[in-house]
Design a protein that fits this description.
Elements lengths: L12 E3 L5 E2 L4 E4 L1 E5 L5 E5 L7 E4 L2 H21 L20 H15 L8 H12 L4 H8 L4 H7 L1 H19 L17
Antiparallel strand pairs: 1-4, 2-3, 3-6, 4-5
Length: 195
């Protein structure tokens, strides 16, 4: 899921407000991004392209986590009192301000270290999701829409290596169906009756 932070490379990420979520319908509307300015401040911007502005379905587990997160944030709001910055953002500091990308990166790397996983960029989670979807047979058009790519060629190009691996698996499966291992040379091939 996209968080309301910016990447180290200064490319904007989608900004998520509570009013962008419909937890009953299980959707998130992606409408805005957050980017660090040259002076170091964070500003809200429209998404990069019209295709980037979209509504996506959320997994059930994500919906449960978001509901729990909202309860925790309500407690943080109470604790902060008048120091709370009512930004409406889903992911904030304990005082309601946008998360600093450097802090998010440090925390993410800490989670990876504790879990014994190799170090990756936070953005790599997006690529992992798209790769998993492709490997599960999800149509490239659906993945394009989820990622907010303006053209399917972008999605196809980025994930060409996955598609080639899937093609190899498909051809190997077809080969197994057409040329099964036949222990008895007197038995006809399994595909012989297929025309």
């Amino acid at each position: 899921m996209n968080l309301n932070v910016v990447r180290v490379a200064n490319e904007p990420l989608q900004l998520l407000h509570w009013d962008d979520l419909d937890l009953n319908a299980g959707t998130a509307s992606i409408r805005r991004s957050l980017q660090r300015t040259r002076t170091g401040g964070l500003i809200q911007l429209p998404t990069k392209t019209r295709a980037s502005e979209r509504r996506i379905a959320l997994p059930t587990e994500c919906l449960h986590s978001l509901k729990e997160h909202r309860e925790r944030q309500d407690k943080e709001r109470e604790t902060a009192g008048t120091d709370w910055n009512d930004s409406g953002l889903v992911f904030t500091t304990p005082t309601g301000r946008p998360l600093d990308p450097a802090n998010l990166t440090r925390r993410f790397h800490s989670f990876l270290n504790r879990a014994g996983l190799r170090r990756i960029r936070f953005h790599d989670l997006r690529h992992s999701t798209a790769t998993l979807l492709l490997e599960q047979g999800v149509d490239l058009v659906v993945i394009k829409e989820l990622l907010g790519h303006s053209h399917i060629g972008v999605t196809a190009g980025v994930y060409a290596h996955v598609r080639l691996r899937l093609q190899r698996q498909a051809i190997d499966t077809l080969n197994g169906a057409l040329c099964p291992v036949n222990d008895d040379p007197d038995d006809p091939p399994a595909a012989a009756g297929v025309r």
